[in-house]
Amino acid sequence: MVRSSTAVLFLSVAMASAQTTTPRKLIASMEGKDLYMAYCASCHGVSGKEDGPAAAVLSGPLADLRTLAQRNKGKFPLAEVENVILTGQSARGGHGS
Ligand code: HEC
Q1: Do residues 63 and 52 touch, judged by C-beta distance below 8 A?
Q2: Is there an atom of ligand 1 within 6 Å of 84 CB?
């Protein structure tokens, strides 16, 4: 009897904690700048000028994100940037390959 009530208690606690557990956010903010700092700055650098700490060990040349619009006739290439982020591919080759 004691055993089964212990098991019931254990199960209820386990179920209750499973129900209240929400997935942890990797970063607290979903603002563009914070996302960039968390996911992109390691390679592209804090200001996008190819000087992140991981840039030195990459095999290929890194893209200068500050000149994206300039290199696209003055217009920010939103669709291409979205494609790079969503698919990992860019016009210049495999992003991160
Ligand atoms: C592991 C290092 C690394 C990380 C992290 C990284 N990138 Fe890149 N990125 C590169 C390299 C290397 C290139 C150049 C080669 C290529 O275009 O695939 C590049 C190219 C790009 C390009 C294409 C630029 C052009 O001139 O065509 C864009 C846009 C870009 N990255 C955006 C991002 C964004 C946004 C993030 C964060 C979500 C990010 N990158 C994270 C290494 C990285």
Answers
A1: no
A2: yes
Residue nearest to atom 1 of ligand 1 (CA): 96
Q: Give mean pLDDT, residues 22-32.
A: 82
pLDDT tens digits, 36-84: 999 899 999 999 888 899 888 887 788 889 999 999 999 999 998 888 8
| Residue nearest (by alpha carbon) to ligand 1 atom 24 | 63
95 CA closest ligand 1 atom index: 18
CB 96 within 8 A of CB 84: no
pTM: 0.74
